[in-house]
What does this fold into?
Amino acid sequence: MEKLIDVKEGKYKVVDVLKHGKFKKLCNMGIFIGDIIEVIKPAPGPVIIKKGNTTIGIGCGIAMDIIVEKVE
Amino acid sequence: MEEKLIAIAGNPNTGKTTIFNALTGARQKVGNWPGVTVEKKEGFYIYKDIKFNVVDLPGTYTLTGESEDQKIAIDFLTQNKVDAVIIMVDALNLERSLYLLLLLSEFHKNIIIDLNMVDLAEKEGIEYDIQHLEKLLKIKFIKTIGNKNIGIEELKAEIYKRCKEPVSETFKFNYGMDVENIISEIESEINKLNLTYPSRFLAIKLLEKDEYFINFLKGKVDYEKIFSKIVNLEKNLNKPVDMVLIEKRYGIIHGIVREAIIEKKKELKIEITEKVDKILTHNFAGPLIFLFIMFLIFNGVFLLGEPFKNFIDLLLEKLKGLISNLNFSPYLTSLLNEGIISGVGSVISFVPNIFLFFFFFSILEDTGYMSRAAIVSDRVMHKLGLHGKSAIPLILGFGCNVPAIMGTRILENRRDKTLISLSIPFMSCSARLPVYLLFTGIFFKENQGMIIFSLYLLGIFAGILSIKIFGAVFFKGESLPLIIELPPFRMPYWKNILIEGWTRTKYFLEKAGTIIFCGTVILWFLNYFPNPYNYGTEMNFSGKLGSLISPLFKFSGFGFWQAGVALIFGIYAKELVVGTFGTLFGSENMSNMLSIYFTPVSAYSFMIMSLLYMPCIATFLVLKRETGTKWAFISFFWSLFIGWLFSTLFYQIFNFLKGG
It folds into this structure.
């Protein structure tokens, strides 16, 4: 398991979000624990992910609190 | 004729504006929501025997008291008699759009779903069982492709039908027995108060610990008692209630989508948007591309606008000649020619440039590039301790500082909002363009674009400096982190672009017709009296006023009274700087006279001052409303100081390097 801010391009499963407020923000954008996301552009800078047909830019402040695990 | 009120709601990037424009066409106006400074778009259309007044609500993902946009949507829907609500749904993102539907259905029943961009969904191999969706949600779906005007007539027909025969019942869902019991208990407390917000809605907001609604209800209900019930509930559920609510809603949505979606097998292809995003948001290439795009726009504005500007100048000269031949009284002739036409006319001649500016900016918005700009800017904004979204109002400031400061409403954090509001006045707005075009046209003909671009960069530098200084002294602390949707790239919808370009230009013309018109009449009076035979000289009121302040600018290279008067009137509206010179020197002599009074160095110094000191009175008033009186005055005096400092430093250093 790694922080979203540390991962490379590829598919990952959202395992946890460390802060409640940030978790709510993700939920408002339709991203939940257990969702499979694709990292299109990793850090440095905002991480760009794709879930389904939605592409979202996530700043470093949130990306460092999202825990993911690689999906083969 | 009967009238009905329709609201269009939905997530951002679902095509709300396109559908709004398709319904109302040019029959729309832009204003402000009452009591706040978020832009309000309203229009109308007539269908059969009814006039439909349409309001385009701000795009939101959810409905909380977190931001002004969301509060506006909630207040409008709960406090007005809205006959029908159209919820815009992006056919590619049904799940997320349905989340907003669930929230809205808690307090509004007469809903139509506009399933937009169905062509893009088809390309992705997504198909919906619309009949099943309608059965599950008890809501009518209308398929549209907004930018091709497809489905609009069907939408109008459904709106008409719904207004004639409103539904009283729609999709119902509950949050589970434990949560529903608490909601009922809280509802019964709130029901006693007879508030305009639905009591179930308020009860849910309390469960979500929405600070805005908690403050709204404090003192009206026994909040401590309610809070202890919430704490007990969370102990039973073993998680925060707001998460339970969100999970329940998405559980319902997942179920609906699973039943109703028929997703065909997608062909393997690499998304163009993804490929382009890798370049546009690249850590190194991204900012360079952003700056390059800005540079192209600024040069395009001047090159393409020039022939039209020259044509308008010619027409104004003809008009002056005509008035001179009509043998009006000397006062009236002078007022018309030297006052109004010289003053207002010299500003109106820049309308082609203004239109082109907003035209190109709208293209950036419509194609989806703006959110990429926010991503690219986040690294820089983060270093300034700000949210990446802060870049958006800053960028808007290049169009006009007034809506840009209003646009800081998208920032949820007061700290970010205030800091950005204080730096936006340094973003070189379109009102300063006439000043640059005038001076660069005389002194820097061969490098006009480059010189003006340098001023924009200087403004950005001054803005960053302000953020750093005020942030370190007054606003220590963290900003909210960035999370922003990147819509797919799309071809710009030219109807939207033209309407947007025209709406903004109309606003500029209205300003020219009102504020600037009044300013030029006052200025003419100050120039004409008490000595009409010495128009625009030091012997008149304007000259005395300019003489008072001109010594301040001696070391900036423009310590003469005419420059002082121009700067004074520039506070009223920045375009009046040009209008003032036009009135003082006469528009046909203006270039010659400016060449006598200025040198290239002092001209650039004057442009620095025009760039940096308070943009206009409208900016001051909006700042006062958004940040408070204290910060508005701080901004005013700070901008005067920075403008004077930078222009003086530039003039003195440049002359020193030149050898005095």
Summary: The mean pLDDT of chain B is 84. The interface with chain A takes residues 61-62, 92-93, 95-96, 99, 124, 126, 240, 242-243, 246-247, 250, 273-274, 277-278, 281-283, 371, 374-376, 378-379, 382, 387-388, 478-488 of chain B (CB under 8 Å). The longest strand of chain B covers residues 2-10. The radius of gyration of chain B is 28 Å.
